[in-house]
Amino acid sequence: MGQTLRRFWSIYKQNKLGVFGLIILAVFTALAILAPVLAFYPPLHTGAGDAFMSPSWQYPLGTDDLGRDLYSETLYGARVTLVISFLAVATSTIVGVGFGAVAGYYGGFVDSTLMRVTEMFLVIPPIFMALVFVALFGTSIWSVVAVIALLSWPQTARLVRADFLSLRERPYAKAARTTGCSNFHIIFFELLPNAMPTVIVNMSLTQALAILIESALSFLGFGDPSMVSWGLMLNNAQQFFRQSWTMVFFPGMSIFLVVLSLNLIGEGLNDVLNPRRKQ
Amino acid sequence: MDVPYTINRTLQIIPVVFGILIMSFLLIHAAPGDPIVMFLGEGASDPVFEAKIRQQLGLDRPLYEQLFFYLQGVLTGDLGTSFHQGRTVLDLILDRAVPTIVLMGSSIIFGTLMGIFMGVYAATKPYAMRDNVTIIASLIFFSLPNFWLGQMLILIFSVGLGLLPAAGMHSFMVPDDQFWIDRILHLILPTITLGSTLGAFVARFVRTSMIEALSQDYILTARAKGLSNHAIFYVHALRNALLPVVTYIGLRIGYMLSGAVVIESVFGWPGLGLLMIDALFDRDYPLILGMFILVSLSVTIVTFLVDILYFHLDPRIRLQ
Fold first, then answer.
1. Considering the entire predicted model, what is its pTM?
2. What is the mean pLDDT of residues B35-64?
């Protein structure tokens, strides 16, 4: 295990941008975890200072229209964004891998039904679907997680299916079948480990997408209003362009950096895990 | 014309279309909250009147009957009447579709030009400095949340420099001779916002397909004939590289529409996106359902047409 990791790292570190992405993500994760220690005020604490103050030692990123400290708000916003996107990716990966593996392994009717279902999801514009879902089922973080998972599992399923279509014809799969292994065993213990490179690269890209969808939803006013999130902060900033630039700049910059880091990590992982696809 | 392929592809979209219709219907009915209560206002209604309205809207019938009538309506072009605005859903949508189509059209033009320019620039010297810069620039563009890009553009160009209008589709009072200039000025920032994400994707795509095209035999032939680099690039390679790009743009229409919903809110652009947001806040079920269906169907149809078009334009796929 240790040796595998070392070999993995020795290839990964050659991609400078991938390493840069990993650092950004690590910093934001640390900030999110340490938010209660690092923040000056609890989340949504109004009247920490006057309204629309410029950055200073006391308020490093300035204050918003209700005198909330933007530095503390941005720190707590990292928690919501990272937790929601992580849960959404975990759910969508489990569902997508399950469906994709079954469809690719068995083929036939199961496969063509699944392909029609995923096709249906691929033509529905994601934000439309997300808005309708969240507006109907409430704006809790659980419904946001559910809708992001609902929107992203078909992509995972298609990729895994494509891998399984070729994996099931490999000699070791046939050998396992001949020695009387159950289909369950073959799918999850023989084939799935070989489809993991695809799944892992896809996870980082899906998480980037999840963060963009989550922040767009809360920006439009369909996020969880009881929690600070970067999208919600930008929604609020929309009315105060003339009073404060920090309200617009910092939450958006945070979203951008985290999404960028995930995309960079995705490229880095791709170099290590799918060397043949590298151009 | 290869008839079997066209027919086959047409048959494939029928279950997708019905799937969308049934799913959206069930989604709306599975939701908590009674549309009648929203319609009449919380606790304000008397039961007799409520029952009458319920009957009028067909909400008292069993679910499968409602679904049947709904499908019947959709197939004859009747999407129902908005709860709130008292106009037919189709009317409302067609009214608001024009601004969205204008915005999407200008963004597609902008994004395509930006993407081709960046992609070709990178492909002229693969793996050199300019190539890396282009790749990083495109990564930055598709990591930007598009609504934030819009907000930053407003902050810089409208609030800071005072060059361009921040919101709306036109000014309140415009002299006749400035009508078009006013419209175009209002279109610039939303177009850049919506088009640049597309541009980033197109740039990567053009780059890859240019590099591939440049390695083909006909390029070698062109070089052997002594054609200038310029001619080889723009006449031979680019033309062949563009076909997949056109298809690709067609396939991104759904994402563009998604982006438009968010960007319309940033710029107060009076299109389908703002209509959708209003409908959602009002729980205007017929309008939500109608928009959801029309938008998904248009994307399905565009995707379908692009597929067919590509199949007929590129003889190479028919051989596979």
1. 0.84
2. 67
